[in-house]
Amino acid sequence: MTARNAFYAQSGGVTAVINATACGVIETARAHPERIGTVYAGRHGILGALQEALIDTAGESAETIAALRHTPAGAFGSARYKLKGLEENRAEYERLIDVFRAHDIGYFFYNGGGDSQDTAHKVSQLGEAMGYPIQCIGVPKTVDNDLPVTDTCPGFGSVAKYIAVATREAGLDVASMAETSTKVFILETMGRHAGWIAAASALAREGEGDPPHVILLPEVPLDEQRFLDRVRESVERFGYCVVVVSEGVKTADGQFLADQGTRDAFGHVQLGGVAPTVAAMVKNQLGYKYHYAIADYLQRAARHIASATDVEQAYALGKAAVELAIAGEDAVMPTIVRESDSPYRWHIGRVPLAEVANVEARMPAEYIDESGLFVTESCLRYLRPLIAGEDYPPYRNGLPDYARLAGRMVEKRLPAFGA
Amino acid sequence: MTARNAFYAQSGGVTAVINATACGVIETARAHPERIGTVYAGRHGILGALQEALIDTAGESAETIAALRHTPAGAFGSARYKLKGLEENRAEYERLIDVFRAHDIGYFFYNGGGDSQDTAHKVSQLGEAMGYPIQCIGVPKTVDNDLPVTDTCPGFGSVAKYIAVATREAGLDVASMAETSTKVFILETMGRHAGWIAAASALAREGEGDPPHVILLPEVPLDEQRFLDRVRESVERFGYCVVVVSEGVKTADGQFLADQGTRDAFGHVQLGGVAPTVAAMVKNQLGYKYHYAIADYLQRAARHIASATDVEQAYALGKAAVELAIAGEDAVMPTIVRESDSPYRWHIGRVPLAEVANVEARMPAEYIDESGLFVTESCLRYLRPLIAGEDYPPYRNGLPDYARLAGRMVEKRLPAFGA
User: For the site Important for catalytic activity and substrate specificity, which positions are given (chains A, B) (predicted)?
Assistant: First the structure.
């Protein structure tokens, strides 16, 4: 069996550990030169394949590839680009096959969320239909933790840890100032459709009265009165209140709370910002002094406080993806299979892409408590091991020393797409 | 000479390392039992003295006191409470002396910014006038880095490191997504009157094209056209633009940019939020997709990524404060004296409180470049050593294990104030 090349691409929103997966893919591929020639990485994800913009990872030293393990964001560039259905835009899929053929690419590793698994699945089907042999392996990634089958998604554990740490630290700050200053602190987290990230803030609580005091989840339509009652109760009992709110929280009529029509001085609608909306509620109805933080990209890029468990799993899934390919598998995705919560034990499993593509995993109802304003112990049991362990990057001059790629491009062999 | 007790209070906004100073004060006092009896800490800062709400630190184990070194925020509670002038409210000052007398307090350590140094100075003067012997030592603290004489203020180095790390990490995120998604990222930092914190983001830049690309400082009135030109130039040359903006940025007519009259759906003025204002400018004038983060308390509470230099200096200043008191000094503040930038060398100095009280240190003009949109190399030379080194807290269950005080209160001996 002769070696064939591999194509690797990062897709969608990046994370603190997606490069650890890339590291697992490339290091494992390099360990099997008899089966895998060169790993070409798509510049800006799947666009790199469409545009034949391929980064030659053979041009990167072993040290640089190893450093990807501790480097956040997408080192090769990611893309928010969803291929249309096969029937709507067959040309795009055929272009992918053309590029793969031109560079003797026999393995396609697609590192992303639900959409990406769907794309990997379609490419596998098309390769077969076009008589071009290609093995397509999906590799999970998403801070939203919304892929089915796998116990968790790389990227989530680190953002969960970041939010839990931030909640504990800012909570101490507010507790120490509340007597004469801010009484209500609001932390806005990512999570447009699922409350996993906001829920992780609950890990900061050790005993009664500890922050967070309220968690607002997209799964629970906001009951403004119930929420305000809880805030008042917290301030009266503990002197302050820490609220963690997911960006995806909705009103009872199904609208995003962040889209409540805030306007600037020129009358322009201000986009986003569920935190200021919640803050205004607190201020106007209860009169408490507030502050809010919007963590935004800081939370998903925070490699400096990544979960060691998350980093390990991210790498292991990249490695497993290559091993599945070498074992002859196609149209599958490696997964995390949990064996036990405590002690935490897990192993790598696999699932056919057909079972993953476009299926969204929601937070189970039993993870949300009766008030709808906090999570349950079973949720905490699930979350705890995911943030375990620290995995600090190396530092230089007081700052994390992240990888910089040489980024050598592969010479193009085809005309431009659409030209 | 018999031992007398000490009073220690935290004042104003808390930091990642003010408890490290408390640790230095208490550990050093404990090492000199022949001179210092018990350290009483004010619950909620100076309010604790006015209300005779004194925390008996003798009730805390050596382990708990040692753990303060790695615990953020104000463990004894801080307060935003400025004593009025002596002539306006002499009763408050006399109450302080009464409480000190009732508990045989001969040392007053006041840990705060310019206002607090002023208060410590006045208490010293009043003690003398009232014939009550008390040595008043100011201990510097402020994330704003705006105390005069001292080279830097504990708390600043850690928030500087946080902002530089966040800028580097979020910058990598935006760089990897910009091809198909967010092109402009805005990070709002603290700094109502001085741009030190926003300036520290510049430490993230290693080479041309690295983020941050623009820094907006309170010292430079916003020139909207010049700013937008720089943003467009950055997006065109590098594909994206990272803007770091201080909350205190003002318009040419001297108004805070954050007070531009944003209103919510109910017509209420929305407070704060310079980031969304800048974002709206970018969106409306240039049309770029943006995201913004507001770090708020996360930045000053982030003990998990504290600067080792900052922690060391915070502790050393607490220790020095006690040593100054033991040496018989009064109405002074220990300072950081820089000997050289690189290698960074410093020692502890001292300054009379009269020279510190109510004097605000601004960023020197030569630290801001000609465009007004970035800092100079001399600014970076000043900043670099302040973020050097990591000083990680211990972790338990994936989260920083911060100190929890027993918080035993001293029995009151006086009637309530004002009763």
Answer: 115
